[in-house]
Amino acid sequence: MSDPGPAALSRMVASLGPGNTFAIVERVDEAAPGGWYAQVLLRDDNTYQLEFRDGTAAEHYQTLTLSQEKVITALSGWAEGRPDWKDAFMWNNIASFFENPEHV
């Protein structure tokens, strides 16, 4: 789906469950090299693992939440390019998982 709005992102997150545990929203910009995306994984314990990557593996962050609404708000804000979209969370840089092949 190209350019999903808040309603589509809400449906994507609400549909997460067994057999469909993750969703990825990717920003495609030919002028900005690297990978730009936000993703969510519904874990087995019903927590949401929310991640985003700003261009390079060194800028890959992760947080956990129980709130589906906070995930939807974050993904919508990210997709819209709002600067405050990530303020509701404490983020951990997980770049080391991508730099060290033992973690992959």
Your description of this structure?
- This protein has 104 residues and is an alpha+beta fold.
- The protein is 25% helix and 28% strand.
- The chain has helices spanning 6-14, 68-80, 96-99, and strands at residues 22-26, 35-42, 48-55, 60-65, 92-93.
- Strand 2 and strand 3 form a beta hairpin.
- It is globular, with a radius of gyration of 14 Å.
- The N and C termini lie far apart (28 Å).
- The model has no long low-confidence stretch (mean pLDDT 88).
What is the topological layout?
Elements lengths: L5 H9 L7 E5 L8 E8 L5 E8 L4 E6 L2 H13 L11 E2 L2 H4 L5
Antiparallel strand pairs: 1-2, 2-3, 3-4, 4-5
Structural class call reads: alpha+beta
Q: State the strand order across the main sheet.
A: 1-2-3-4-5
* H/E element sequence: HEEEEHEH
Return Rg in Å.
14 Å
Note the main sheet: 5 strands, antiparallel
Shape designation = globular
What is the helix fraction of residues, given as a range?
25-40%
> How many distinct helices?
3
Mean pLDDT over the residues = 88
Strand content: 25-35%
Query: Could you tell me the number of beta strands?
Result: 5
Give the termini separation. Answer: 28 Å
- Uncertain regions spanning at least 5 consecutive residues: none
Q: Keywords for this structure?
A:
104 residues, alpha+beta, 5-stranded antiparallel β-sheet, 28% strand, globular
Outline of this structure?
The chain is an alpha+beta fold.
